[in-house]
């Protein structure tokens, strides 16, 4: 089935926040954000600003009616700065004016003075200074002392990976409308409608039922709108509440890049030990996460780094430690993979270091350590339906690895200034929110009198195709054509208490809830037919192709007749469904449990050609075998794999996020922050579907696909370093990502 949005997308008719018709009286908001990274505010004077023509309100923390707090996990982040600022880009005041231009011009008249405080941008410096968010976390398996003794080879090193700008095409934004009795209705570009609702209720000091959040779709989220859509929605709502006028706040690209947090940069120390057969016997890693100035989702991201620190490998003795470090950068946040990519990058670096020291192909070490059925993860869960080895082997066979290796070796032998590199990247990613209480969802289904169907769920469409999957589920359950199903907006008054659409679990959680709702209505309808047609057994009543069948025979009742008759007979045609993932649990104090409903596996092989004169490179191919379970929509799922892969490749190759010592974002525009475009994507991306049929908790056995493929991109880093080594054997230990052209050039001529 085609993506239900393709028609309006390709015609430019899909509606985003900035496309909503402007209501009369609307005020436009602009944010005055901190020009310094750390300081105690000594003066904030908005008196002149308030007098400007066209300016209707200037709002500071003093005008907040409720609690000046938007922190989700820890209450450590004000909606508007009060006595101090902690990062450049932190919202300090908002101006509401009759046009966006007037609002922005007015910002220049705000007088802001502050006594500077020390600025920390480096996570290791922050940790040494005791600037830690939450507690230091540890996951342990086996016996380290015993493990190290059994090792024939032990290596220690450091690996660093950078952050990443989300660069959703639609920037952060919201449009808030005042409703009678101090209520607010708001359209927000958020992955978490309930997070927005709760945030607004808290800052306005009203109960949650006074706030209605509505989401049609997002022009991309990638985790950047799981938590960080909330502050901007809160500011728009605050404006509407105080002014009693509709307030629209949509960030420009430069504001969005400056004010919002990104993927967390990490720096880590590792130690890896192998036996004579290259089995990893012990692995220790100590992660320092650059959290930025407030917790945001950092503690949860940090935890997922630990969950994925051993990637798709079994390591019997593991000790993993992680610290979330408070720095004076915008609070970093969720980004596709949610800390997992950073954890995987470090063990891939450790394996590469061992391979370099042992002068063997890193694939040799990777292959012998792949997870097997029944292996234990450092967090206590046991693998079930493990596909690590299967995807690896199938990649070797399908993509003719021996021939490829020979071709690459021959190329390298015959070329002086062009070198090819190869890298395998196996992945294993756990599906579920690691915070168990978040793993439930609701759906609401109405069948209207004419037989058309309206479906609401808690899932947010952000380009990943979840709404199309929801239509498929309803259509399949009712045996209807997809055109009979309408996917409603995600709205907190129709579906309450939603978890954000995140953790790749959107389709699983909401799809199961939807199935439960559909099944309940269907049962009522079939029971009604049984009675009307005086059929002995309910099993004899079925629906096919929008028609009622009894004992396999077509009746004279169409779907429409059935619905109309059922309605006249006063049968309830609406239903809600609630689904809570069974089995999942995790004890944060012991670091043990069964946090994931299941795991997604896969293997990629990346081939690159490096121009050793210029330091530039081109990706010849990325060949993937991915574990989809039984894909319910191959077009959408393939798109997720290709998009995730390229986004991950961008992270480790060209996306060069830079802050200076003053905490100022240097890569603050698309001229200085480069993302993959059509010229830098691999010449070939092949995706083979490993179809597996294990009983698992995936919706219709179609495994979650949103985040895992991003981690195939990590292979790009190690393919490049493989090629560099073919040119300059001294260029080893390259564990600093991204491998920009500059960094590649330096490595090629390093001695
Ligand atoms: N795909 C597109 N096109 N746009 C996005 O913003 N977000 C990713 C992934 N794929 C994203 C995307 C992230 S971070 C997650 S968690 C999942 O989609 C969320 O959707 P799902 O749970 O329905 O897979
Ligand atoms: N993944 C993604 N987002 C989340 C998670 C998670 O495990 N927990 C809270 N938000
Ligand atoms: Mo995705 S990072 O879980 O929104």
Task: Record the SSE blueprint.
Layout: H1 6-10, E1 27-33, E2 39-45, H2 47-50, E3 55-59, E4 84-85, E5 91-97, H3 100-107, E6 111-116, H4 123-128, E7 132-141, H5 144-149, E8 153-161, E9 173-179, E10 183-188, H6 193-204, E11 211-215, H7 230-243, E12 247-250, H8 253-259, E13 266-274, E14 280-292, H9 298-307, E15 317-326, H10 340-358, H11 362-368, H12 388-398, H13 401-414, E16 418-431, E17 440-447, E18 453-457, H14 466-478, E19 485-487, E20 490-491, H15 506-532, E21 541-544, E22 547-550, E23 553-558, H16 559-568, E24 574-580, E25 585-587, E26 592-594, E27 598-611, E28 616-629, H17 634-652, E29 685-691, H18 714-727, H19 741-748
Parallel strand pairs: 1-12, 10-11, 14-15, 18-19, 28-29
Antiparallel strand pairs: 1-5, 2-4, 2-6, 3-5, 7-15, 8-13, 9-10, 9-12, 11-20, 13-14, 16-27, 17-18, 17-24, 21-22, 22-23, 25-26, 27-28
The site of hypoxanthine (HPA) has 12 residues, from helix 9.
N- to C-terminal distance: 55 Å
The CATH architecture of the largest domain: 2-Layer Sandwich
Low-confidence stretches: none
Number of strands: 29
Shape by Cα distribution: globular
Structural class: alpha+beta
Q: What's the number of structural domains?
A: 3
How would you sum up this structure, described in words?
With 751 residues, this protein is α+β, with helices and mostly antiparallel strands. The strands form seven sheets. An eight-stranded mixed β-sheet has the order 3-5-1-12-9-10-11-20, with helices on both faces. The protein has a five-stranded mixed β-sheet with strand order 7-15-14-13-8. It has a four-stranded mixed β-sheet with strand order 16-27-28-29, with helices on both faces. A hairpin with a 2-residue loop joins strand 22 (547-550) and strand 23. Helix 9 packs parallel to helix 10 and helix 17 (634-652) packs across helix 18. The longest helix is centred in the last third of the chain and has 27 residues, at 506-532. The model has no long low-confidence stretch (mean pLDDT 98). The structure holds ligand MTE, hypoxanthine and dioxothiomolybdenum(VI) ion. Hypoxanthine binds at residues 226, 297, 300, 304, 334, 338, 433-435, 438, 502-503. Ligand MTE binds next to helix 15 and helix 17.
């Amino acid at each position: 089935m085609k993506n239900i949005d393709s028609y309006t997308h390709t015609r430019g008719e899909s509606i985003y926040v900035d496309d909503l018709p402007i209501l009369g009286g609307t005020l436009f908001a602009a944010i005055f954000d901190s020009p310094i990274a750390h300081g105690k505010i000594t003066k904030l004077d908005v008196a002149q600003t308030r007098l400007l023509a066209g300016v209707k309100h200037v709002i500071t923390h003093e005008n907040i009616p409720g609690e000046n707090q938007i922190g989700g996990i820890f209450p450590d982040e004000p909606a508007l700065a009060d006595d101090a600022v902690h990062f450049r880009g932190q919202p300090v005041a908002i101006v509401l004016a009759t046009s966006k231009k007037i609002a922005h011009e007015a910002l220049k008249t705000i007088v802001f003075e502050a006594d500077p405080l020390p600025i920390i941008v480096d996570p290791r410096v922050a940790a040494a200074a005791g600037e830690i968010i939450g507690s230091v976390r540890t996951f342990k398996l086996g016996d380290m002392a015993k493990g190290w003794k059994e090792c024939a080879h032990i290596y220690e090193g450091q690996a660093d990976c950078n952050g990443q700008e989300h660069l959703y095409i639609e920037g952060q934004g919201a449009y808030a409308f005042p409703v009678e009795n101090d209520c607010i209705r708001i359209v927000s570009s958020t992955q978490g409608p309930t997070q927005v609702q709760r945030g607004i209720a808290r800052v306005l000091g009203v109960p949650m039922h006074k706030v209605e959040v509505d989401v049609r779709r997002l022009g991309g989220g990638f985790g950047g709108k799981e938590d960080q859509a909330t502050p901007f929605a809160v500011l728009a709502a605050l404006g509407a509440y105080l002014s009693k006028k509709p307030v629209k706040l949509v960030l420009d690209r430069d504001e969005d890049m400056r004010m919002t947090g990104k993927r967390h940069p990490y720096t880590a120390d590792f130690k890896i030990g192998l036996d004579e057969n290259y089995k990893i016997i012990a692995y220790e890693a100590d992660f320092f996460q650059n959290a930025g100035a407030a917790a945001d989702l950092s503690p949860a991201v940090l935890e997922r780094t630990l969950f994925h620190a051993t990637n798709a490998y079994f390591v019997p003795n593991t000790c993993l430690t992680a610290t979330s470090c408070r720095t004076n950068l915008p609070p970093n946040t969720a980004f596709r993979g949610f800390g997992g990519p950073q954890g995987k990058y470090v063990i891939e670096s450790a394996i590469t270091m061992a391979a370099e020291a042992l002068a063997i192909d890193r694939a040799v070490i990777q292959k012998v350590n792949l997870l097997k059925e029944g292996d234990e993860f450092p967090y206590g869960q046991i693998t079930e339906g493990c596909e690590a080895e299967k995807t690896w082997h199938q990649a070797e066979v399908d993509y003719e690895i021996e021939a490829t290796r020979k071709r690459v070796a021959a190329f390298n032998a015959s070329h002086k200034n062009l070198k090819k590199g190869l890298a395998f990247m196996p992945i294993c990613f756990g599906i579920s929110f690691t915070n168990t209480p978040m793993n439930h969802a609701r759906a609401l289904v109405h069948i209207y009198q004419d037989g058309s169907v309206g479906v609401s769920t808690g899932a947010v469409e952000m380009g990943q195709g979840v709404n199309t999957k929801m239509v498929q589920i309803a259509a399949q359950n009712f045996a209807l054509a997809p055109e009979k199903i309408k996917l409603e907006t995600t709205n907190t008054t129709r579906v309450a208490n939603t978890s954000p659409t995140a953790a790749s679990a959107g389709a699983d959680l909401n799809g199961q809830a939807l199935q439960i709702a559909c099944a309940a209505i269907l049962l009522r309808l079939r029971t009604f037919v049984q009675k009307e047609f005086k059929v002995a057994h309910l099993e004899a009543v079925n629906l096919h192709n929008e028609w009622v069948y009894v004992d396999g025979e077509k009746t004279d009742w169409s779907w429409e007749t059935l619905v109309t008759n059922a309605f006249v007979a006063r049968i309830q045609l609406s239903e809600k469904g609630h689904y809570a993932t069974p089995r999942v649990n995790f004890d944060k104090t012991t670091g043990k449990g069964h946090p994931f409903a299941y795991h997604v596996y896969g293997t990629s092989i990346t081939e690159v050609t490096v121009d050793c004169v210029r330091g530039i490179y081109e990706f010849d191919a990325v060949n993937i075998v991915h574990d989809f379970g039984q894909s319910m929509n191959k077009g959408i799922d393939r798109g997720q794999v290709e998009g995730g892969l390229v986004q991950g490749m961008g992270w480790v190759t060209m996306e060069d996020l830079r802050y200076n010592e003053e905490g100022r974002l240097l890569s603050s525009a698309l001229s200085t922050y480069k993302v993959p475009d059509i010229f830098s994507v691999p010449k070939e991306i092949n995706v083979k579907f490993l179809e597996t049929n294990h009983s698992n908790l995936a919706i219709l056995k179609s495994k979650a696909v949103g985040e895992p493929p991003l981690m195939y991109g990590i292979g790009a880093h190690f393919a490049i370093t493989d090629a560099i080594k073919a040119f300059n054997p001294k260029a080893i230990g390259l564990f600093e990502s991204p491998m920009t052209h500059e960094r590649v050039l330096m490595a090629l001529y390093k001695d």
